[in-house]
Task: structure prediction
Amino acid sequence: MGQSSKFLSNIIYAMNIFILNAGRCGSTTFIKACQHIQNYTATHESLLPCTGAQRLDYPDEHIEADNRLSWILGRLDQKYGNDAFYVHLKRHHLSAAESFTRRIDYGILRAYEQGILMHEKHRLPAGDIAKDYLDTVECNIRLFLRDKINKMDVHLESIETDFTLFWNRIQAQGNLEHALKEWAIRYNAS
Result:
């Protein structure tokens, strides 16, 4: 396991922070906002091409958002366990499903449809596949987090409040005002 975490009146000091999510929920913007934090590095899907031990070899004091982590949560637990801070980033289910429906022909939804479900292309309506994917990933994340002590939920629909709480919980140093302005910019929109 990684470095130990310390607690002080509901404030966490964690070496690594993972933004767990299904995708289409603001994870790119979350990292753009985190890049205004001076005491952590922050990247989005930075180790995608890596396998084995390198796939989870993040630097210390780092914030990472990568929806593919939801498929390797056992390995994430083995390496970091309770020695990291976890954010479950969420978006209203139907809004996320609609966004994924527009991306049925590429990315993780295509991989889910053709790789996990083993369906020929578009055997089911795209909306059904998107909802099934979201249900699966959300269940995986909830199961992973059930015994974690360093965690919080962040909802896209209440992002300014939730992100400010996140900022305070990790004792972020930097420019919160600039970080919150990132949420007005649409990154990776579909």
Notes: The domain at 14-184 is CATH 3.40.50.300 (Rossmann fold). The chain has one domain: 14-184. The longest strand covers residues 85-90.
